[in-house]
Inverse folding.
């Protein structure tokens, strides 16, 4: 019997991404999280003969797969293996100071989750790795085996939003060292109570993966840099998958649409700031039931879009100090 190879990753909200992201078919677009190249392919199909796409991913496997998939567009695509924190530098190397649109599809690809060797899945036995790419600061094995109990508690609480963080961190420290995902998962389940065991597992694994890949540390800065690089009228789209990501995107967009960011206790505006963004869709876009039925991983996806206004880039911080 012939089995179809599993897809690397099924792009989520593909038609909405192309509809809202492309404002000029001959513009320059960036896919900051290329993955298997699914969204990039959809965008490229809509672009005109002069439209170009720069695809970035920190995972060398993603770059390999996407570069192959995008071969039909090879004259108009450039792929770069790097974390997207280096956006300004990556574009400067291409001689680009501005772009027409940029997409961030945050988190993991299905390929990364399903591949047991990568160590992201608590449902399969795999080495505790969890690095999205070679630039990650450490492996999950190093985190669980060498971080202090306090540090583990903090990570599980902050990045996993898990209420039982302290109990789980204590259990990890008592039972370590761990080398494999399933051994760690067993201990977490044994120290979780009630019907929330699977949720707790998912939260702890999410926390470890965020720590290993520094996923949230530079996210807001990277989104702000992307907005600064957009041409007037250009758009940014972000697909986020959990509340910490949703919050970061919301914060940056809310800041972009505001004018005064100065201290609220002054009678008049002290920062003279103009908004840099407008929202082409006031509401977020979510996959419909049919898409979720076909691709259950679309369940938690939220797409937010924003459009750059015709004002030049301004400091994101008020001259009187950081935002409240
Ligand atoms: C959800 S997948 C993207 C899937 C893609 N949109 C598609 O249609 O195939 C997320 C990708 O972003 C990459 N990634 C996550 N954080 C990154 C970062 N900070 N810099 C570069 N790539 C990142 C991951 O390695 C993964 O391949």
């Amino acid at each position: 019997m012939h089995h179809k190879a599993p897809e690397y990753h099924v792009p989520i909200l593909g038609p909405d991404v192309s509809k809202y992201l492309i404002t000029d078919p001959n513009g320059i677009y960036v896919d900051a999280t290329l993955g298997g190249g699914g969204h990039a392919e959809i965008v490229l199909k809509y672009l005109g003969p002069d439209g170009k796409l720069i695809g970035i991913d920190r995972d060398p496997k993603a770059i390999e797969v996407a570069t192959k998939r995008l071969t039909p567009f090879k004259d108009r695509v450039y792929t770069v293996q790097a974390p997207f924190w280096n956006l300004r530098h990556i574009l400067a190397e291409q001689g680009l100071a501005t772009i027409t649109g940029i997409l961030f599809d945050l988190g993991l690809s299905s390929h990364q989750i399903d591949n047991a060797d990568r160590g992201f899945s608590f449902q399969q036995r795999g080495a505790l790795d969890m690095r999205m790419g070679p630039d990650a600061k450490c492996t999950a094995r190093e985190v669980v085996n060498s971080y202090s109990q306090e540090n583990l508690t903090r990570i599980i609480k902050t990045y996993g939003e898990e209420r039982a963080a302290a109990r789980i961190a204590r259990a990890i420290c008592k039972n370590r060292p761990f080398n494999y995902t399933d051994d760690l998962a067993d201990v977490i389940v044994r120290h979780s109570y009630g019907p929330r065991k699977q949720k707790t597992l998912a939260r702890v694994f999410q926390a470890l993966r965020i720590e290993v890949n520094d996923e949230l540390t530079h996210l807001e800065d990277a989104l702000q840099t992307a907005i600064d690089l957009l041409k007037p009228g250009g758009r940014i789209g972000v697909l986020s998958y959990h509340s910490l990501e949703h919050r970061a995107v919301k914060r940056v967009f809310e800041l972009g649409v505001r004018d005064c960011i100065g201290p609220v206790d002054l009678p008049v505006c002290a920062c003279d700031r103009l908004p840099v963004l407008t929202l082409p869709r006031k509401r977020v876009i979510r996959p419909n039931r049919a898409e979720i039925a076909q691709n259950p991983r679309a369940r938690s996806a939220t797409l937010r879009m924003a459009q750059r206004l015709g004002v030049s880039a301004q400091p994101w911080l008020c001259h009187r100090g950081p935002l409240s």
About this structure: Residues 188 and 201 are 7 Å apart (CA to CA). The first helix runs from residue 14 to 21. Strands lie at 28-31, 52-57, 77-81, 99-105, 230-240, 277-278, 302-308. The chain has a mean pLDDT of 92.
